[in-house]
Amino acid sequence: MLRYTIRRIIMVIPVVLGVMLIVFLFQAISKEDPVAEILGPGATLEDMELKRGELGLNDPIVIQYARYVWNFASKGDLGLSYSSGQPVIRDLINRYPITIRLALGAVMLAVIIGIPLGVISAVKQYTLVDSGVLAFAVAAASIPNFWFGLMLISLFAVKLRWLPSVGISNPLGWVMPTIVVMVNAMANFIRNTRSSMLESIRQDYVRMARAKGLRETTVIIRHAFRNSLIPIINIIGNALGIQLGGALIVESVFGLPGIGKYAIDSISARNFPAVRGSVVLLAITFTLVNLIVDLIFTIADPRIKTALYNARKKRAKTPIVKMGGMKADG
Q1: Which of 26, 68, 65, 37 is CA-nearest to residue 265?
Q2: How far is 137 from 7, CA to CA, in rounded Å?
Q3: The dihedral formed by the CA atoms of 199, 134, 118 and 241, expressed in degrees to the nearest 10
Q4: Would the CA dihedral through 260, 265, 269, 273 be positive or negative?
Q5: pLDDT tens across the length of the chain (330 residues)
């Protein structure tokens, strides 16, 4: 188990390096000049050239990439923001809890609503209840986040004046952003939980449990649902990573000072270090979430832990072939 965990942690490294490389390649092919944005329209060519040298933008993109990776690996440095002159990592740390709180709250609410609806839809297959739940899931998955957010603001903030339209100074400010981010995840949970439950319900062990005279609730929860947990856990982990990215637009719509709004503002200001830092931090978070999900798999499904144990035992018993044509040990 420990060896498997270490191997999965090491696999995070090439993912992060790949994300950094992609971001740098986009910067290389971009024709935008951040120096012009920093110095303003009155800057001379000499001033702009000096600023480029100060920021290291005159170096080849390979040198810039290597320097960026080394600074991040050795010092956790993601560069300085062109706008504020402050370390990007400091700006991200201040905004990171808001984005995480929004994504976690949305996914938890989606789990509470979506998974029970998916189970009910599977149990009531081909009934009016099943059709209603599926129609609700399709409608929820089809709603664009930005449009839904604007509609909620128009209704609950402008017309009814029940909730604040922007900001989180009031705890009620979290309500609408969380609902908007939650909707698509909930629809995904409903459909995938239903599919996983239908597959489990048709298995022989469920028929055997019913033949023993167990109550239907016990059969559904203890037998069908427990054996559907592996794909559901995977969906939850992926949803958390996806909602981190989906929160980018929602944070801008509701004026939340999270990483999403920070990244979008940085794109508008040609603040490349801030954009790179935002993407790298979100990529690290996503890969760590997937790592945690993989580790939870071994707890939820003992068969995975057994497979890991058997693989380690098989490697330990592998015969060692001696030189000189002698027979292998064992």
Answers
A1: 37
A2: 37
A3: 100
A4: negative
A5: 667 677 777 888 888 888 888 888 887 777 777 777 777 777 778 888 888 888 787 888 888 889 989 988 888 888 888 887 888 999 999 998 998 999 899 999 999 999 999 999 999 988 999 999 999 999 999 988 889 999 999 999 999 889 988 878 788 889 999 999 999 889 999 999 999 999 888 888 888 888 888 888 888 888 888 888 878 888 888 888 777 766 778 888 888 888 888 888 888 888 888 988 988 888 888 888 888 877 777 766 666 655 555 655 665 555 544 444 444 444
pTM (2 d.p.): 0.79
- Name the residue with tokens 């981190």: 244
**11 neighbors 248 (Cβ within 8 angstroms):** no
Residue 17 in tokens? 């390096």
Token representation of residue 126: 């081909």
Helix H, strand E, coil C: the string for 117-173 is HHHHHHHCCCCHHHHHHHHHHHHHHHCCHHHHHHHHHHHHHHHCCCCCCCCCCCHHH
State the amino acid at position 135 in one-letter form.
A
- State phi, psi for 87 to the nearest 5 degrees: -60, 135
Name all domains of the chain by residue range, CATH numbers in brackets: 96-305 (1.10.3720.10)
